[in-house]
Structures are given as structure tokens and as C-alpha cells.
Amino acid sequence: MKSTTEATMKHGIFLAILAAGLYALNSPFSKLLLGYMPSTLMAGFLYIGAGLGMTLIGLIKKAAGRPETESRLTRQELPYTVAMIVLDIAAPICLLFGLTLTTAANVSLLNNFEIVATAIIALMVFKEAISPRLWLGILFVTASCALLSFEDVSSLQFSSGSLFVLLACICWGIENNCTRKLSSKDPLQIVMVKGSFSGTGSIIIGLIRGERITHAWTVPAVLLLGFVAYGLSIYFYVYAQRLLGAARTSAYYATAPFIGVFLSLLIFREIPGVLFAAALLLMIIGAWLSSQDEPLKDTFARYITRSQSY
Fold first, then answer.
1. Is the dihedral of CA 294, 173, 105, 35 positive or negative?
2. Across-strand partners of 71?
3. pTM, to two decimals
4. pLDDT-based confidence at 150, cuts 50/70/90?
5. Most C-beta atoms within 10 A of its C-beta, which of 64, 177, 235, 271?
């Protein structure tokens, strides 16, 4: 039983880190594409790309004759499904607004605030256990985010771009816990629902705001980025949550911002200052503490039996 548990835990960790690596592509490549497509429409097409990609995977699985082993969403999960959709409309829009006002490296690192939001909400609303080590990790992550959010340390002025990114992280923190309530259901269906409804909602909002597509080539480019960075990432994240719980999955997912920072510095040749370097050090410590906390045994026990269908 112990070896099975350890193997399943490792499987969950691998899926969480894989999801993180795919999502890390989002900030730098979205920053590039924002020069050619308005932010709200881009948020919509990112999720549409995720939904279309997962639909294609579902059709391939069906054509291959793979049996249906996953539970489908029901009316009982409707409140969490609606909340997931609404939050997935708000979060990417806030993130992309933030990207237009600050650097891609800053945004990548600030994304780690999602750990804090997810863990606090998991504790306060869903009563999920959080170890002292994870609390310490949360403290370091919060301190790092505070440093990154200051536009001018001497006058203590907050960067509006950073505040938009932090707001996106709060939305995703709530959404992560809603998704946890759906983690026993078919991840393919969850991503298709996210993509279809959240994407359509964002596109409608963008069109109402007067945004328009001026470069046709950006649509397939954004759809592809959405499939990889959102679709596949969410797909693996849901499976990881099934095995690890919301707070612990979010901790391993914290590797995404560091990959994103590396890509951003490589692509945009951004030279980070002393403040960024200090924030990066704090974030590394916080992410390491978070990922090394003791297994959340109660949470894991709830999901271990469900994992056997994967």
C-alpha cells in the first residue's frame, strides 16, 4: 500500500510540474502577441483554443475506441462549474491587462501569488489542511510579490500592472478550489467547458468594448498557444489535483513562473534590477518550502481511490 501511495503521489507531482511547464509559455508568448491582438479578445481566443484542442483529443480518443471511464459533470456540480467559468473570464483579462503595463518577467514571477490565494481559500472555505512549512512558504511568496508590486520603493507606489496580475491570481485561486470540487469528473469535459464558455464570454466582452481583429494570422497563433498553455496545462492540472489536493498541487505548479521568467529574459532581453533579484530569491525560497511540505494526508486520501480510473 505504501509503495502504491508513493507511486501515485509521484505521478501527481509529475502531472503538476508538467502542467506548470506548459503554462509557463503563456506570459512571454502572450506578451509578444499582445502587440497584434487586443487583450480581452486574446483572453477569449486563448480559452477557445484550449476548448477546441481538448475537443479534438476527445474525438481522437473516441475514434480509437477507448472506453469511457470518467464521470461526467452533473447538475449537482453546476454552482462550481458556473463559478469556474466566470472566474476564468475575469482572470485572463486581468492578467493580459497586467502584461500591457509591466514586464513579462514580472508577470511570470507574480503568478506565484496564486499559491497564496489557493491555499488561503482552501483553508478558509474548504477546510483543507495546510502545514506550517507551507505557511512559511506562503509568507516568502507574499513578500516577493510585495517587492515586485512596488513601482517606486521610495514613495511606496504600487504598479497598476502588478495589481492586475495579483487580481488575476486571486481569481485563479478561487477557481482552483472550485475546480478541485470537480476533480473527480472527466478532465477533458472540464477543459472543454472552460474553453467554450469562458472563451466565448471574453470574446463577447471584447467586442462590446470595441476591440477588433486587425491581423488575421494572430487568431491561429493564439488558439495554438491557448491549446498548449491553457488546455493541456489545465488537463494535467486537474489530474494532479485529484491526487494531491488544491493547495499541494498549486505548490508544485509554482515552478511555472520560474520557467516563464527564464523565457521572458531570453526573449525580451530584459535586464532585471536589484529589486527583481531580491524578489526572485524570496520566491525561490517560498516555492521550495511550499513544494517540500508534508503530504496532505487527509486530502490525498479523498482522491487516491479516484485516481485508479486514470
1. positive
2. 185
3. 0.72
4. low
5. 177
C-alpha cell at 94: 486581468
The answer to whether residues 112 and 141 touch, using CB atoms and an 8 Å cutoff, is yes
Closest among 294, 187, 183, 192 to 241, alpha carbons compared: 183
What confidence score (pLDDT) does residue 291 get?
A: 60
Report yes or no: 180 and 246 within 8 Å, Cβ to Cβ: yes
Question: For residue 238, how many C-alpha atoms fall within 13 Å in the half-sphere facing its CB?
Answer: 24
In whole angstroms, what is the distance from residue 19 CA to residue 16 CA?
5
What is the spatial distance between Cα 189 and Cα 74, in angstroms, rounded to a whole number? 11
Strand pairing report for 157-158 and 150-152: antiparallel
Lookup: cell for 285? 525560497
Helix (H) or strand (E) holding 77: none
Question: What is the DSSP code (8-state) at residue 237?
Answer: H
Dist CA 206 CA 39 (whole Å): 8
